[in-house]
Every structure is written in C-alpha cells, then in structure tokens.
Amino acid sequence: xxxxxxxxxxxxxxxxxxxxxxxxxxxxxxxxxxxxxxxxxxxxxxxxxxxxxxxxxxxxxxxxxxxxxxxxxxxxxxxxxxxxxxxxxxxxxxxxxxxxxxxxxxxxxxxxxxxxxxxxxxxxxxxxxxxxxxxxxxxxxxxxxxxxxxxxxxxxxxxxxxxxxxxxxxxxxxxxxxxxxxxxxxxxxxxxxxxxxxxxxxxxxxxxxxxxxxxxxxxxxxxxxxxxxxxxxxxxxxxxxxxxxxxxxxxxxxxxxxxxxxxxxxxxxxxxxxxxxxxxxxxxxxxxxxxxxxxxxxxxxxxxxxxxxxxxxxxxxxxxxxxxxxxxxxxxxxxxxxxxxxxxxxxxxxxxxxxxxxxxxxxxxxxxxxxxxxxxxxxxxxxxxxxxxxxxxxxxxxxxxxxxxxxxxxxxxxxxxxxxxxxxxxxxxxxxxxxxxxx
Length: 439
Fold this sequence. Notes:
Layout: E1 3-8, H1 12-27, E2 31-32, E3 41-46, H2 51-67, E4 72-77, H3 78-82, H4 84-88, E5 95-97, H5 105-109, E6 119-121, E7 142-146, E8 148-149, H6 160-164, E9 168-169, H7 172-183, E10 189-193, E11 202-203, E12 206-207, H8 211-218, E13 226-229, H9 239-247, E14 254-260, H10 264-269, H11 276-289, E15 294-301, H12 308-320, E16 325-330, H13 348-373, E17 377-387, E18 390-395, E19 400-404, E20 413-421, E21 427-429
C-alpha cells in the first residue's frame, strides 16, 4: 500500500478540496499519512493570493525532499494554475496540475512514477468550467463544505479569476445531500465556503438558484448543530440573508465581510462593487438584529494610489464600525492584474507601517468585542486542540475559549458562562452542566 501525504496552503476552500482529493486516493487503495511519515507521494495544494504564498510552496517542497528525497511531489491549486512552468522548474517537483486537472491527478499521473523532468498538466483557465463537489472531513472539528467556485468579479488586485475561472456552483439539492452525509458523521459544525459564495447559483453559465434559498434549505438539515457562513461580499449580503440568520435554527451570528478599503476613492480604483456607505449599512443592520454578532473584516493596505489621507480615512472608518476583528493584508503586486499598471506605488516600508497600525486596531476591536461578551451564556464547540493542559473552542459568535483539558469535551457543544479574558487573550468560562471547564 503506497503512502500519500497532503499539505494545504491558503483558504478554507483549499482545505475542502484537499480533503476530498485525499478520499479519492483512499478509495484507490492508497494510505493517507502525516507529512513527516515518509510518504511515497506528496500532494501540495497551493494558494497564490500574495507573493508570500508562493515562497511557502517552495519551502514545503524542500521540506518534503528532506523527509523523503525519493517521494513523488505533485503541486496543485491556484499557484499551479498561474505559474505552472515556474513551478515545474523547482527542484524536487515531479508534476504540476492546474485548476481543470487537479481532481483527475490519479488518472493523469498514472502510478506516480518519477521522470527526468516534471510533467505539467495545466489547461487554459477557460477549461475550468466544471463544479467539483468537495468537503473536508476528519481533519478538523469543523467541516468546510464547498458550495461555489470561481469568480466573475475583476478586482484590480486579485488573481483568483485567473486561477479558478468563472463563477459556478453546485445545486442546492446536491449540497443538501452532502450536508446530510456530513450529518451522519460526528461533525457538529459546517462552514460554507467558496470563492464568492454570495454569487452562488450559477450553473452552466446562468443563474438558476440563490444563496438565500440555499441557507433556507440547509437550515432544515437535521443532525448539523451549526452552519457558519464564510467570507461574503457586502453587496451580496442582503438584508434578507441577515434577517434569516438572525431568526434561523442553525446559522450562527458570525459574518466575515471583505471591506478592503474605507476610502471610496480607493474602492473605485480597486474595482470593488460597493462604497463604504453600503458597508456601514450592512454592519448596522447585523448589529441591530444580532447585537452580539461577530463581524470580521478583510482590509488591504498600501494599494497603489493610497495616500496617507486615504489610509487614515480607512482607519477612522473601521475604528467607528461595530466590527470584531480584522484580517489585514499588505498589498502585494501580482502579475497580470490591473493594479500592477497603476502609478503612485506605495513604498513597502509605508505599507508595513500601515499594516501594523491596523493590526493593533484589530487587537483593540477584538478585546472590546470579548469584553462585551463577559457574563453572557454561550455554547462552545470544543476542538481537539490541546496545549499545556488546556483545550480551545469557539462560541456560536466566534469567541475563542480556553478551558482545562477534558477528553470528554472534545467535539462537544457545551453551554458555558463567559467570565473574563485570560492572559492569552482568550475567554475564560465557568462551570456548567456538571463539567468543570475553568481555565
């Protein structure tokens, strides 16, 4: 039995696809092992949102070679689609598969026999027009369920449409079937993921269903305690969806909404499809319906043309919003994007300074959000994540909790009282239901 190991870089969508591809290997008789267990085959699923992701891919290949120099190394994912020739020249790489080929790698690589030079299977991105069902299982407490792929937006900084193709989706019926399959396992929480999930419903090039209808159907699936919506564009997060989540049985009060900039001038330059006023309206509506909802924000600093005034406009806009945390991205030039042709490049030193300011703001926002939750009752899904005798979990509104390790609590939903913020920045909880979960 040949052994295969997987390594995933990037987003939740990549994790869902890696997990599904690993099950294809297991169905063919391969044994899935950990990265360090000297596998015969390494499959590395890559991201290419930033230049740093490309560097990480190279590092993982080097580490794989150290563990087993004779192993077959295949690279899939966004980086593989964007730069297949470049990757094929990395020492140790045996195969590169693009977006249209990655789910066929067992068939295409025919036994994973090493050859003198790397084999490349990477069609034009227009060939990536089929939706491949995927969900993660066995890797984490939560499952990532892929509902949509690709993107029809053309944001000036983004390579995703070049790496994943046009927007396409599974059907509601198929997704509900997958959800029921997941419900038959021990999974308690499902995260809906995709490239642009608010654009859900496009099949065979035209819209057939809506994201709002999908969440309504999933809310009726018995056996799943929680559904969580991953990142969703503000212009696609309608009041109908917000109101449904507020009243739903299973969807939790947690939204991650990309902002990218709080300056309308920069939003226009980025080719975003909204202005900051719409974003503020969405946040206000969420907080009006769900006062303790968690709201995460993506923001990019140092985009070409972003002056100090533009940045401060973003800083003050976010500071005044009732949001809970930030994911801060330092702008990184990506080949074949419109932003690389723009003038007024922001020096890297200045980009880094602005990033630090927003990361500090994120810590303040997060702590304030946690303070607002002290004294509240919540339900924590405890994870198999043990460090120094303590375990961790998340409440429905994404407050991270630390508790004394108890194997009985792993993958269990337990009611708690949130009592205070510990030294590690996580929430501490009180005894409940005869379980002692003091930090």
